[in-house]
User: What shape does this take?
Amino acid sequence: MPKILQLISVLLFFITISGQVYSQNSEEEFIEKIVDYKLQKKEVAYLHLNKSHYLKNEQLGFTAYILNEFEHTPEPTDSNLYITVKNEKDSLIRRDMYLIKNGITSGVIDIDSTFKAGNYTISAFTKHMLNFDEPYHFSENFKVLSNNSKTKKSEGFPAKIDVQFLPESGHFLNNTINNVGVIATDSSGQGLGNGKVLIKDENAEILSIVDLNRFGIGKFSFIPKKSKSYTAVLAYKGKEVPVLFSPEIDSEGLVLTVSEKESELEILIKTNDHSLPFYQSEKFILVAQDNENFYNFDINFRDFTTASVLFNLNELAPGMNIFTLFNEEMQPIAERLYFNHTNFDVETPKTIQTTAIEDSLQISIPFYAEKEGKLSVSILPKNTISYQRNHNILSYIHLKPYIKGDIENAAWYFTNIDPGKKHALDNLLLTRGWGSYNWEKIFNKNIPETYVQDKFSFKATIAERDLKRKELRYMVHSDGKNPPNVFKIPQGIDSFIYDEYIPVSGESLKISRVARNDNLMPAKLRITFAPNDFPEFNIASNPFPLKSQKLEEKQDRNFYYYEGLNADTEVLDAVQLVGESNKAIDRKRELEQHRYGRVLVVTEQDLNIYMYLADLLMNQNINVTNSPDGFGATSNTNMQQGRSSNSNISSSLQTIIDRQTQRGMVFYLDDVPMLDANMFYNFPLTEVDFVEINPRGMGSGFLGANGTIKVYTKRDSHFSSNSIGRLQEFTIPVAYAKEKEYYVPKYENTSDKFFQDFGVIDWIPEVQFEEGKAAVINIKKPEVDFQLIVEGVTSEGDLIHSVQQVQK
Assistant: This one.
């Protein structure tokens, strides 16, 4: 199939039906507009959630995949992902920003006290997605359960029903064979599965009996006549009720149908005898396209009421194809979506291999194709009822962007695909009619990229009096993920943009100007942040609701045990027992979760033993020089360890590093590096809250070549870095969510019915595998049979989805 730039005639993409008049574009102008739109980069977001039904005090783990719409490859540009969670009243519960690196990011959301039992919607988007009307964002429901989550099981005939009759390509045409899709749902949008619809004429003669599938969808064919009237009856759960079937039948017009025949797909454009004289001299254009290619055909009826185009299914692109019919004025008049399963391949693992190592289990996930990639794995009991998501990565990437609205159990169409599911998917597409693109916007308006892809940065404007200085050096202080960085600004430059900082929620930006003698002073900059607020995004349609779970009495009682075991406890590490009695030990472990060094929390006992900071450090195997002539420290760990200069860092920072290497370990005061450590001579321990000792300086870059000691003062201390006036501090309006490790919940019993229904064995958010090698994960050995739900993508854009069951 020709690529975009090889186009000779007309192209089209997804359509939105509109009563508005399209501008009279020539074919050349029309092609140019579509090519421009087609060439715009588009990306699709998908979140692999570890489950769909959560208990209080559990964690929602997710891995986000941001993929190129055409190739399905991970987007290589670092950018921001915005995630929101709303309750069923559409009230915002939380919102967070995550940094996407190489198309992937992951995170954890605590199902804490802000989550009441009920339904929630998690959505994810980038700013770039705000440029388009199409549903490239992610949105899906999840449910929070509690001991009060009992639901009444729906039985019998629903109180309210909705039966729709949807003609193929959108029109009923008089005296012509019409294919008609039927969809029957209840008030919540759930399909009335396995019912029947009887189509009758005005004499109550049955014209067709439509069998509805598990989602309440079916199909029938008939020849409508304007001179006749029609009725329909729904037969469901032993009851028959009349439903409205009064089709609006056009006397003249066209219908577009598809028919699959062995290895070919036939596209039929049909009219009737009444319309033929009007269309014999008119040219129509059939445009066929997938997500990357397009091509077109001139359609002329001449003396026949039917025109057809045949496609070899082996040459037609696998996946979604859209066939659109245009008149001479370049107006879309009919459309049909078709999913080509020929050559549609899914990257699935081979049979996994397990190796028991004491109380752990090593799981190897090999692949048939020798490609590299990344994946995420949810490990749940084999018989779980807590993983009932509406989508998987296949349905979301291959189906969701092309269809308006959501689909009941969309993942079903892409799980263990067989002829029955292929037929069911085609019936679904027939009922959806027109696709998701806004043609009026594409044809009649320019589509600028109002929102460009973003990553955190800030613009700093230099104070006017500092512009006269021959040398300006600034230090961005270490904080969280950010090592300290010193850089030069050439004379005459009045502002600069800094994009090497990764702010974490709750932190602030600290900047100092470095004087010629290496002393630090406030930077006196004016800072503008990007982004400076959380973008607003109105989701066009609500995701399909999850089905409720009926809780048995035994399960109900177990909720109390589970919630009591996990409530109001600090998660310390994977094996720590809940309820440490020593508060200092609790705080020490909490602080060490996000730090590279060893933390000492100053206690009353320490104050009774040591007078000065130096005394405390000497008791921690640190060599300290504490005299009026100079203060310094070296670690026994690094006594014999040296580091050479590095060509990849600035000369300003290298000069400071060289000086500091001679002095020993770098001291920080409240995260501000004190390049002159003499202020710590006889530093009172009563002013210290806690100390982080990092002998190897991990996380501090080259400044920490000989190790670091970070001293944190009490809030009211007059020794704090802010009171000394060495830096300028800024509040960051939008920062990245704090990194959290996923912790497996604690259960009183890891083999009973409650655990097998709702429990979690593990969640592995990011696993990388190399070409020709298996992905390997390690988990605690389960006590029950379990399943692995594996999703991901290769570097070449092959989507990965597999559910594999393993015996304990």
